[in-house]
Amino acid sequence: MLAGAQVCDFVQLLKPRVMTLVVFTGFAGMLAAPGHLHPFLAAVAVLCIAVGAGAAGAINMWYDRDIDAVMRRTAGRPIPSGRVAPEEALGFGVVLSLFSVMLMGLAVNWTAAALLALANGFYVFVYTAWLKRRTPQNIVIGGAAGAFPPMIGWAAVTGGVSVESLVLFALIFFWTPPHFWALSLYTDGDYGRAGIPMLPVVAGRRATKRQMLLYTLVLLPIAPAPFLLGFAGPLYAAVAAVLGLLFVVAAVRVLRDEDERQRAARQMFGYSILYLFLVFAMLIVDGAAGALV
């Protein structure tokens, strides 16, 4: 360990803000799933999802340390700032990844463990190592990695994959592009300096804004689908529909915004996080209410 490295630096390697959303959606998948999981095993499953997501984040920071160093948004991360050695970050991530998958398999079930391993592998090898530096579709395809947590939570309870869990996967999958493209609209200079072919850098802001609107429209009927499939109630459906319409409105505002500071995009990025949080919060409330009946 480098002399200046502290525990908080290794915590930062785990991307705790991203991890929080991952854990939240994974927990929602567990509560939405039919069946019952012992509270202790449920806690273990949540721990494994959290550790697995953090491990993938640490490996991502190891691989991207060169581009992180030239981007203002990421230059202060533990590796480019010199607080943690690259090999330590890699070892940290690999050990935690293996630990999370093995613990999930041994304590919960191997289907959930396999999905956790697939999510980590997809994020590290498909998104980070293959797509991110090669194609403007990096977020579209690579975003699948972040869509696995509710499926993992569902599998932890049921031991399998179903249409319902695939709907939860699709919800995050189609949410991811407008979420990240909103961010990239006002950080495109950073991505350009780092040589990352994000859509605003390659295709321009106007084309990116049109794509963002398209994805919010595709997402609009997906969010209420849990109600149509019978594993969420009418209150969830109503809230999801309203939140989806507001997401579309935000995308329209971005499309019309000519401000160089991209104020509408900044606002949409913030709303996109709130959107996903509230949709899955409603799933949790719905699942918890169903468990009490």
TrEMBL record:
Gene3D superfamilies: UbiA prenyltransferase. CDD domains: PT_UbiA_Cox10 (cd13957). Converts heme B (protoheme IX) to heme O by substitution of the vinyl group on carbon 2 of heme B porphyrin ring with a hydroxyethyl farnesyl side group. It is found in: Cell membrane. It comes from the Bacteria. PROSITE patterns: UBIA. Pfam families: UbiA. GO terms for cellular component: plasma membrane. The chain crosses the membrane at residues 18-34, 40-63, 84-104, 110-131, 138-157, 163-183, 212-229, 235-256, 268-292. Carbon 2 of the heme B porphyrin ring is defined according to the Fischer nomenclature. One of its GO terms (molecular function) is protoheme IX farnesyltransferase activity. This is Protoheme IX farnesyltransferase. GO terms for biological process: heme O biosynthetic process. It is a multi-pass membrane protein. The keyword Membrane applies. The keyword Transmembrane helix applies. It catalyses: heme b + (2E,6E)-farnesyl diphosphate + H2O = Fe(II)-heme o + diphosphate. Keywords: Cell membrane, Heme biosynthesis, Membrane, Transferase, Transmembrane, Transmembrane helix. It comes from Ferruginivarius sediminum. Belongs to the UbiA prenyltransferase family. Protoheme IX farnesyltransferase subfamily. PANTHER family: 4-HYDROXYBENZOATE SOLANESYLTRANSFERASE, PROTOHEME IX FARNESYLTRANSFERASE, MITOCHONDRIAL. Its main location: membrane. Pathway: Porphyrin-containing compound metabolism; heme O biosynthesis; heme O from protoheme: step 1/1. Its EC number is 2.5.1.141.
